[in-house]
From TrEMBL:
Name under which the protein is recorded: Multidrug ABC transporter ATP-binding protein
Main location (coarse class): membrane
Keyword annotations from UniProtKB, A to Z: ATP-binding, Cell membrane, Membrane, Nucleotide-binding, Transmembrane, Transmembrane helix, Transport
Domain ABC transmembrane type-1 residues, every copy: 52-334
Origin species: Lysinibacillus odysseyi 34hs-1 = NBRC 100172
Length: 611
């Protein structure tokens, strides 16, 4: 055993070579199911002590399931056929005890296996969620959120169902098959060989079916993820759908994705549905062979009647585990497909958080020859040769049309992305040498579209500082001009808001967002113009709250209105990813450039620069 950091955030795992790096090696494509099963086993193996108990109970139940028919045969041969009933009662009592112990062992193995499965799924679900929290922003940029949700819920739940039943079935079937064959060979090698005639037929049928179902079940899980992604996206954007009267288009798109899932699911289940039918047919064939030929052997005195009874039961018992495995095969294939998608998340490289942690920012910010683009393969940079220096406590207004690069500068400041070349510095230190957690813990964000959680007002504001007291939260709300409207809510600060605060206005959500930032007491503020879509009265309240919030802090404000710019110490004018003007407002006015033209026009900045 080695003690490393594993994908689930726990320390105790198998050595790295056993766990696998998560990268497919040459030839791995044909053996993906083996690779995935190996990784599932490594997770389940954490419950080793309970697994041993389950295995013991499975062993006991397998032995007893073989003992029952054997005793029945002996009762027939020694008591029923000779007509001697003395001692038969004792053997029948032994048979009753055998089946009672068998029932207890079956109960215990299922009870313990459910505990193992739930503990394993809990670890995987927790691990996936923890991994999602530590993945870089770029990972979420490229994927539907609903599809990721499907992996963390549907795929893991499918694996849970499989672990609850399939593990015991596999172990029990292997033990039962082995024991059955040994006892059958002991009783009659000839009948044993006749019983096994079905095995080649069974493997031929299974091979034909599994070559088709494996791919189909994988596509089915992917189709479920895509459908869930669309549902989540559509529900989240319901206002836009209705605003543009796109209900019919969305319904048609849903029908298309749902239709694909129906088609893939139909063929996956159709092919896999052949398995129990084929197994039942082979089972009946085996029973007919044993009963027919066994009867002839009994008539000629080669075997006893009891042996024939034992063999017919064992013939069924021989094919029953195979039939059980075949019936479980559909679930196992679906679970493996889901597990592959889950492990794909766990194998994603987490956002590195190396760098200095014990550091207090002062608020000086410098960009030196910064170049950046979101897509490394894109021909043109999103930002090109950006240079500026900001002193602690200054307010910086970022102005420019949509797509000019204002938000990108914010993203680089928070290290949601890293520069392609050049450096971003805080207090003269390259931002890449500062741990992300340390950097972001000294920042606060007030976005144009604030996000609230389904929690109380207290908890929504406390999100900025989890150890904040109720008094600190109330004080922050007062400074943010939010206290009055909060007190008018049904339960004041204890009022539980719905997801994203649907029952309060946009302006009120913005005030709560400002209160959250105030509680955080940041050194650097990143503000996406909070008043761009607010009425005049609410704008005045928000503006007052922002002035309190920005006091003494380095603030970067994406400005859409000249009001905000007039209060700034430094103005950065962006166009097409370049910094075209920068400086104090008086300097920019004196130059008579773009910024001066904006002031003369007296219109919103976006409208002017978009010309």
């Amino acid at each position: 055993m080695k003690y490393l950091q594993n994908p689930f955030g726990y320390e105790r795992i198998l050595k790295k070579d056993d766990l696998g790096s998560g990268k497919k090696q040459k030839g791995a494509r044909a053996a993906d199911w083996k690779y995935t099963l190996k990784r599932i086993w490594q997770v389940v193996d954490e419950q080793r002590s309970l697994l041993v108990l389950v295995f013991m109970m499975v062993l006991v139940s397998s032995v007893l399931s073989l003992t029952g028919p054997f005793l029945v045969g002996r009762i027939i041969d020694h008591y029923v056929v000779p007509g001697e009933y003395d001692g038969m009662i004792n053997l029948i009592l032994v048979l009753i005890v055998v089946y009672c112990i068998l029932s207890i062992s079956l109960f215990l193995q299922n009870y313990w296996m459910i505990g193992i499965a739930q503990a394993t799924i809990y670890r995987m679900r927790t691990g996936v969620f923890a991994k999602l929290m530590h993945l870089p922003v770029t990972y979420f940029d490229k994927r539907q959120h609903g599809e990721l949700m499907s992996r963390a819920t549907n795929d893991i739940e499918t694996l849970s169902s499989t672990l609850n039943s399939a593990f015991i079935q596999v172990v029990s079937s292997v033990l039962t098959l082995t024991g059955t064959v040994l006892v059958m060979l002991y009783l009659s090698p000839l009948l044993t060989v006749l019983t096994m005639i079905i095995i080649p037929l069974m493997f031929m049928a299974m091979r034909w079916i599994t070559r088709r179902t494996g791919r189909l079940f994988k596509e089915q899980q992917a189709a479920i993820g895509a459908l869930n992604g669309m549902i989540e996206e559509t529900i989240s954007g319901q206002r836009i759908v209705k605003a543009f009267s796109q209900e019919q288009q969305v319904i048609e798109e849903f029908e298309e994705k749902s239709g694909r899932l129906r088609t893939v699911g139909f063929w996956a289940l159709s092919y896999s549905g052949y398995i129990p039918k084929v197994m039942n047919a082979l089972n009946n064939m085996s029973f007919a062979i044993v009963a027919g030929i066994g009867g002839l052997l009994a008539l000629n005195g080669y075997v006893t009647i009891g042996t024939i009874v034992i063999f017919t039961e064992y013939a069924r018992q021989f094919t029953r585990p195979l039939n059980d495995l075949a019936n479980q095969f559909n679930t196992v294939l679906s679970a493996i497909a889901g597990a592959e998608r889950v492990f794909a998340i766990l194998d994603e490289p987490a956002e590195e958080d190396k760098g200095v942690r014990d550091i207090k920012l002062q608020g000086a910010v410098t960009f030196r020859q910064v170049y950046f683009k979101y897509n490394p393969e894109a021909e043109k940079d999103t930002l090109s040769d950006i240079n500026f220096a900001i002193q602690p406590g200054q307010t910086v207004a970022l102005v420019g049309p949509t797509g000019a690069g204002k938000t990108t500068i914010m993203q680089l400041l928070a290290r949601f992305y890293d520069v392609r070349s050049g450096t971003v510095e805080f207090d003269g230190r390259n931002v890449q040498t500062i741990a992300r957690e340390t950097l972001r813990s000294q920042m606060a964000f007030v976005l144009q579209d604030p996000f609230l959680f389904e929690a109380s007002v207290f908890d929504n504001i406390r999100y900025g500082k989890l150890d904040a007291t109720d008094d600190e939260i109330i004080e922050a709300a007062k400074k943010a001009n939010a206290h009055d409207f909060i007190m008018k809510l049904p339960e004041g600060y204890k009022t539980v808001l719905s997801a994203d605060g649907g029952e309060i206005s946009q302006g009120q959500k913005q005030l709560l967002s400002i209160a959250r930032a105030l509680v955080a007491d940041p050194v650097v503020l990143l503000l996406d113009e909070a008043t761009s879509s607010i009425d005049t009265v609410t704008e005045m309240k928000i503006q007052e709250a922002l002035e309190v919030l920005m006091e003494g802090r380095t603030s970067f404000v994406i400005a859409h209105r000249l009001n905000t710019v007039r209060n700034a110490d430094v103005v950065l004018v962006m166009q097409q990813g370049q910094l075209v003007e920068s400086g104090m407002q008086e300097e920019l006015i004196a130059r008579g450039g773009i910024y001066a033209s904006m002031l003369r026009a007296g219109k919103d900045i976006d409208a002017l620069l978009d010309r």
